[in-house]
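Postdoc handover notes: sequence design on the structure in folder B. Input tokens:
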């Protein structure tokens, strides 16, 4: 299952976002380092399920289908809050950075209202610039990787020269524990014009800055979007960065809990809700719901929590969803389950890539694939498309 790390300073709503995204119960408190041990839980990204288009009743196994919407699981990691100097061991920095190793992308939660300082302590709204928080997190992770490379740099250069290896391969081996692939380093290296044997600190940092954008891209969750000063800060963030989602994790938690209690009708990601049992709500609760409707849903279109998950998977990581079946005529597996699995796979993947994702034996025995919609054979170099239903034929 894909792992996404929820990162950020202490006290910006990181654990609230995690709880809202996964409906879990990570501890939330208004003081730094509430999260010490990494919390793991499952959230979901959503796509239209082909069941409605095909007018069939699906039987999902690895996911869920709610009224034609397929909920596909991803694992979220809620890691310890980061403070400046984490790469040197400040706060819980070493533990934080170690927890990020296998994450494919970062969801960076920041306080868009500017009401937490650079250490994560509460301050007057608008007195801290949230743009500084984006830069500081990128810097900390870059410097963490730099620390891994720097201590062995001369040795790595000698190895590349003596064994006539591409320096990208040597760097990837050194950073393999952080989930870095050689292809990522090769792409990042293109922007550094000097010969690697002449690289200085600034050149290595430039490489690592590029590498992080490729290997571990970051989505910015501008949390507390309903508070004073947040709207103007969000505009500034969106002018500077491509992937910014205005969010109110507290609003999402309030709506989902009210929906679970049967008080309102609400589906995560939607732009409104319906009050079902107003007689069971106090005037304070009704006012709180109307505040969320006016200051979050009507202003931003949603609470932002579901949108953030979807953007992380489908935009940052550029994944698509495909549906493997064994019987292309009945759209089912060998047990008769219709559209049983929804697989997240990188855009550009071929049928053989999909086969290996299902199981190594299926990949090794791959002969060809069939598009279940048309019942036609698919070329082995055909790029799969979002929503494809594919049957893999093996030897």
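Designed sequence:
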């Amino acid at each position: 299952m894909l792992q996404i790390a929820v990162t950020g300073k202490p006290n910006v709503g990181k654990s609230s976002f995690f709880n809202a995204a996964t409906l879990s119960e990570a501890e939330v408190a208004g003081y730094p380092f509430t999260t010490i041990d990494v919390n793991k839980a499952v959230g979901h990204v959503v796509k239209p399920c082909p069941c409605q288009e095909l007018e069939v009743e699906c039987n999902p196994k690895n996911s869920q289908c709610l009224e034609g919407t397929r909920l596909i699981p991803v694992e979220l990691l809620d890691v310890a809050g980061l403070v400046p100097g984490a790469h040197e061991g400040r706060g819980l920095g070493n533990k934080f950075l170690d927890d990020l190793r296998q994450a494919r992308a970062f969801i960076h939660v920041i306080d868009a209202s500017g009401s937490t300082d650079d250490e994560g302590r509460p301050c007057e709204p608008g007195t801290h610039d949230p743009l500084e928080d984006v830069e500081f997190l990128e810097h900390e992770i870059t410097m963490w990787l730099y620390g891994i490379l720097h201590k062995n740099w001369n040795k790595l250069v000698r190895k590349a020269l003596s064994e006539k290896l591409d320096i990208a391969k040597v760097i990837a081996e050194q950073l393999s524990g952080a989930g870095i692939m050689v292809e990522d380093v090769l792409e990042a290296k293109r922007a550094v014009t000097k010969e690697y044997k002449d690289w200085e600190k600034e050149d290595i940092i430039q490489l690592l800055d590029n590498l992080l954008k490729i290997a571990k891209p970051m989505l910015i969750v501008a949390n507390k979007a309903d508070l004073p000063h947040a709207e103007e800060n969000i505009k500034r963030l969106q002018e500077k960065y491509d992937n910014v989602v205005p969010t109110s994790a507290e609003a999402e938690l309030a709506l989902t809990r009210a929906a679970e209690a049967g008080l309102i009708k609400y589906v995560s990601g939607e732009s409104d809700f319906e009050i079902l049992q107003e007689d069971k709500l106090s005037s304070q609760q009704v006012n709180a719901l109307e505040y969320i409707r006016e200051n979050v849903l009507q202003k931003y279109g949603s609470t932002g929590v579901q949108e953030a998950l979807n953007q992380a998977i489908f935009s940052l990581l550029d994944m698509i969803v495909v549906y493997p079946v064994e019987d292309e005529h009945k759209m089912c597996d060998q047990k008769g389950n219709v559209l049983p699995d929804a697989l997240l796979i990188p855009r550009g993947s071929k049928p053989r890539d999909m086969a290996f994702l299902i199981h190594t034996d299926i990949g090794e025995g791959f002969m060809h694939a069939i598009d279940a919609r048309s019942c036609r054979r698919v070329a082995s170099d055909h790029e799969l498309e979002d929503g494809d239903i594919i049957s893999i034929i093996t030897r």
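Context for whoever picks this up: Residues 25-36 have pLDDT under 50 and may be disordered. Don't rerun without checking with the PI first.
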